[in-house]
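Let us work through a complete example step by step.
Step 1: write down the sequence.
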Amino acid sequence: MEATRFSILDRSRTREGHEAHEALRETVRLAQDVEKLGYHRVWVSEHHGMPGVAGSAPTVLAAAVAAATRTIRVGTGGVMLPNHQPLVVAEQFGVLESLFPGRIDMGLGRSVGFTDGVRKALGRDRDAAGTDDFAAQLAELLGWFRGTSPTGVHARPAEGLTVPPFVLAMGEGATIAARAGLPMVIGDLRDRERLRRGIDHYRSTFRPSVWAREPYVVVSGTVAVAGTPEEARRLLLPEAWSMAYSRTHGTFPPLPPAERVEHLGMTAKERDLYESSLTGHIAGTEERVAHELETLIKETGAQEVLVTTSTYDREALLDSHRRLARVAGLTTT
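Step 2: predict the structure and record it as tokens.
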């Protein structure tokens, strides 16, 4: 795994009994910690109207993270392009790159709001995430950096800057990334066959561009490392319950402690969704995780692994990242 980069995506998840501002500050502190551990980049996400997620303005949060760190790359995983005008996105990343040159990444997705109410508040609907619309928005965004907009308007200070773009490859995202000649971020680890098909399609249809001469694959997913298999599994419980709850209630709640999840009453549907959400992740002791990661990297040929783990216990999460850094050869401590 020495040739493979490892990075972190933190969603600024809120915890029961804690406020949103604590989650945002924890994201900044986590970035400082994983920088010391040798991770390649740290990304933040965009979610709207969710009590369980504080990260609603990724470029703002990325600025705070970049200001608090020195060497680690900082970016978004991602800015949801259908929610924004491409010119404004270009300007925001142009400012970030100007302030923190050579450290900013532009991860871009095509999801819209999680509920009808959020989509309405954003002035968007489900059709806004269509493949053709996203491809056109992406081309326009990249054009602002290249100075090729036919409008006569110039994006300041973005024009002429190089901010590496990445496409979050959900559904048709792999096709869009390949046609645009951009690096691709792809999950989910729970469906390896679909994962491999998406990557193979991306590589076989990739067109070199000014942004990337060759395909670049980032595989994303949950990786939990602990002293015992049982401890690693307990790291997964809060997020698994949150996913089950979101699919039955339409919103992501704050993460509860694992101890409370273990004693929660659930409906049959919630239980099925909960148990399903616990499967397919890479979790266990350092030895077990090393084996599973080596298999994943061999199967996919991924150049990078983006770890997306969320849990209630912040210290246990940091310990997991610390153990993973050892497994990946990022650090010996």
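Step 3: interpret the result. The chain has a mean pLDDT of 93.
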